[in-house]
């Protein structure tokens, strides 16, 4: 399947023109009133940004607390950090169970839900497959069929034993690797929102490298406007917008993390059934949900499932909607968003068709 990184393909755009006097980045002691305070940092191998609107004198401190939480969770959940829970699980694959934090256990349990939804097409044990392809744009490696088959023998979430009573995870076969890259950012975004809400933040935008999570709406009680990226254009070109509040928006697509060999594109969302990048009619999926962990898991899951099965899955889950952009320039909307997605007819009416 899978994500070395989720895409930067969704950006929050606020149509209100904010008049801000002085520097607002993580400072709240200005002599003049600000519309928001914000801080941008680098965690999870991506740019993260938190904006609090209608701030008070504690808002910058709250943002710092949230950033610290992101860093702490990265130390636990990243497969690339020596000593993390996932690193220990990998090092002890085929040897013994490893006791993990409650956070790691929660994310692993969530991942199993999506594995069941997709009959294994969402699989956190694709770590060996991700390493084999070594996708690091513009570079990558196209494995041989023999290499793929050998590696696929180490990919099977059913060979990961989760013991909730003892809080342990065990990979049964040596060489297995569990990688939470396809779901961890969503979980962390939800944790950040919890911190903001606990500190009485009413209006905010959390953006973890494209995982956008809204806290409330604008200070005037209207919704935030979220742009859905055109996968065929540079970042910042939007097919349309959604106006909403308290919403997670996460996208997966084939157009940002990829490499090409002899004119063929190989992207980063790998199908654990074949070992190759998922190959179907979809270019991009955008998932709208209350929880970002759901958006993360479902955006990858539906991309691998394909249009028909992906839309069927989303329609079966309460309070989740999807926007599917296909290679033949069609936009498919699930039933709950058909009246709220505003398509940019002026700029894209001659390029895309909205299918309702």
UniProtKB/TrEMBL annotation:
Magnesium. Can also use manganese. SUPFAM superfamilies: ApbE-like. InterPro entries: ApbE (IPR024932), ApbE-like_sf (IPR003374). It is a lipid-anchor. Residues 1-21 form the signal peptide. The keyword Mitochondrion does not apply. Its EC number is 2.7.1.180. PROSITE patterns: PROKAR_LIPOPROTEIN (PS51257). The keyword Magnesium applies. Its cofactor is Mg(2+); Mn(2+). Pfam families: ApbE. One of its GO terms (molecular function) is metal ion binding. It comes from the Bacteria. It catalyses: L-threonyl-[protein] + FAD = FMN-L-threonyl-[protein] + AMP + H(+). Keywords: Cell inner membrane, Cell membrane, FAD, Flavoprotein, Lipoprotein, Magnesium, Membrane, Metal-binding, Signal, Transferase. One of its GO terms (cellular component) is plasma membrane. Mg(2+) binds at residues 182, 296, 300. It is found in: Cell inner membrane. Belongs to the ApbE family. Flavin transferase that catalyzes the transfer of the FMN moiety of FAD and its covalent binding to the hydroxyl group of a threonine residue in a target flavoprotein. This is FAD:protein FMN transferase.
